[in-house]
Amino acid sequence: MARLLSLDPKSLPRPFALIVDDDPMVLAVAEKALRGMGFSTMRNSSPEEAWSIATVILPDLILTDALMPKLDGRELCLRLKNSEPTAEIKIIVMSALYRGGAYRTEAFKTFLVDEYLEKPIRPDVLREVVQRLIPAAARTHPVSNEARWAS
Amino acid sequence: MGIVTVNRFPPSYVSRAELLSTFEGDTEFVEDLVTIFLERCPALIDELRAAFKAGDAVAVSRAAHSMKGSLGYFEHGGGLAAAKELEAITAAEMSRGPELMATLEHHVDALTSYLNQEFHFTPVTAAL
Fold this sequence. Notes:
Largest sheet of chain B: none
Structural class of chain A: alpha/beta
Distance between the termini of chain B: 19 Å
Radius of gyration of chain A: 14 Å
Strand order of the largest sheet of chain A: 2-1-3-4-5
Number of helices of chain A: 8
Shape of chain A: globular
Radius of gyration of chain B: 15 Å
Number of helices of chain B: 6
Number of strands of chain B: 0
Distance between the termini of chain A: 25 Å
Order of helices and strands of chain A: HEHEHEHEHEHHH
Order of helices and strands of chain B: HHHHHH
Oligomer: heterodimer
Helix content of chain A: 40-55%
């Protein structure tokens, strides 16, 4: 953890995705889909650690479970969206519990998620969402990240 | 009690072909996913049993939530339904534990056999 927090975000291979979940199956599926899109990935099962890591490495994408111990993934999203320089990180929240339109609306309006997916996640659905949030051109273009770091 | 409860939720497995379609024909990945599931199930069942023993409805709900997430890739029937009921359990309903656990374990055991057969793994039980 200490080593992670001393990383220079510019040294990381981009695009970079942080996957936060305590389910190894979800981690495997998400990692497969994102790596297939050219992302480098990091797994973490603790939303509190994920918060610390995100503020240091500034991932291009965070994929997080909603229901986790200590810190709800939606709260993690809101905290990141309300903080510079993490506000621009694209965040997808997944849930197998908070399903349905009302929860989806709440996730967008209250927790400022960029996308809300119901579990179990499918690679094709995840890819489609990520492609929309971070188009391929933006993924391979370093300017946006440089600008973010500079700020 | 067990028979009636189990029959209330018939099994409905995701076929090997459906799984391969979902994961773009990547047999190795699907087999890895099945392996993760088979390795994880006994621990989740143990977690549920321990939570019931401790009378901790919140812990039951959390473990059942994890079980539901894992089952969701492989079946849409009895196991998933039982996991959902366990996930929604309240402190006042903890007496339903034995009934729901028997149902869940029955379906997880059956799913384990199905997956072992479908993926030609060395037959093992989920050590329930």
